[in-house]
Amino acid sequence: MKSAISQTVSRWVEEESHHRTLALKVIRQNDPWQGMTEEEIEDRREYVRCYLLKDFELLLMIPIQPRENDFWFSSHQEFIESPFNTHDFQRNRKPFDKYGYRIKKVLEQIKDLAVLHSCISQPEGRKNIQTRFENLVNQEFRNTLLEVVERHRKTFDEGRRAELRRKIAKLSRHILECKAIWQRWSPWEGSPAYHGSQDGNRNSQTSSLGQEEVFRD
Predict the structure, then answer these.
(1) What band does 142 get if pLDDT is binned at 50, 70 and 90?
(2) Average pLDDT value over all residues in the chain
(3) What is the percent of the chain with per-residue pLDDT over 90, rounded to a whole number?
(4) Model's pTM, two decimal places?
(5) What is the rounded (10 degree) CA torsion for 27, 33, 37, 40?
(6) 3-state SS of the chain?
(7) Among candidates 163, 158, 164, which has minimal Cα distance to 209?
(8) Best label site of 59, 160, 203, 210, fewest CB within 10 Å?
(9) Considering the domain boundaries, does residue 45 fall inside one?
């Protein structure tokens, strides 16, 4: 038994002591890189990449809008060791404005819709984009504005009325910003400005409530 174990171990040691010089490689008949060096393979891949990019040459000529903030770190360790993670930086850092960030993103979405509206030549497509724009403004600002105006009409506390007037002014300002962005980036002749989704009824309600009731004081 011991001799058998000894022979097995000796065979293993002998096999490990031999230098393996054979390097086996799988060769496929349909390999496009067969017989080419690494440098030739890289040159061929670069040629194929440039050839395929020719189909997108016109798109690549369009300038890319620079990012407002391209701040980033390649690794978490780099962020930990950066000056932006120090106590002095965090102490003077202002709190994140969630509402302002949301308004910024809504205005960016309206700009995208306006640019898309200006690129479409079919009337039906422009009408669909116009409807999406109106629905977005209604959902984000106008419906809330009507609710605040209604609460202001039913409220008799002067402190509460003053707070509601400030909200009405803020929402009205956002609607005007949306309208200005739409008119700037959607320069189709005859493109209707935003008047709401109810063709005058809700406008007249907002105008009467907002001007006669809200700002009467």
Answers:
(1) very high
(2) 76
(3) 27
(4) 0.51
(5) 180
(6) CHHHHHHHHHHHHHHHHCCCCCCCCCCCCCCCCCCCCHHHHHHHHHHHHHHHHHHHHHHHCCCCCCCCCCCCCCCHHHHHCCHHHCHHHHHCCCCCCHHHHHHHHHHHHHHHHHHHHHHCCCHHHHHHHHHHHHHHHHHHHHHHHHHHHHHHHHCCCHHHHHHHHHHHHHHHHHHHHHHHHHHHHCCCCCCCCCCCCCCCHHHHHHHHHHHHHHCCC
(7) 164
(8) 59
(9) no
- For residues 126 and 114, the answer to whether their CB atoms sit within 8 Å is no
- Return d(Cα 134, Cα 12) in angstroms, integer: 80
Q: What is the pLDDT of residue 64?
A: 76
For residue 111, give its domain range: 98-214
- Report which residue type is found at 163: E
Q: Are 183 and 190 in contact (CB under 8 A)?
A: no
CB atoms within 10 A of CB 180: 13
Structure tokens given for 126:
């422009």
Whether residue 210 is contained in a domain is answered as: yes
Across 102-118, average pLDDT: 92
Q: Has residue 9 been placed in a domain?
A: no
166-212 tens-digit pLDDT: 999 999 999 999 999 999 988 765 444 444 434 444 444 444 344 43
Give residue 171's pLDDT: 93
Q: What is the count of structural domains for the chain?
A: 1
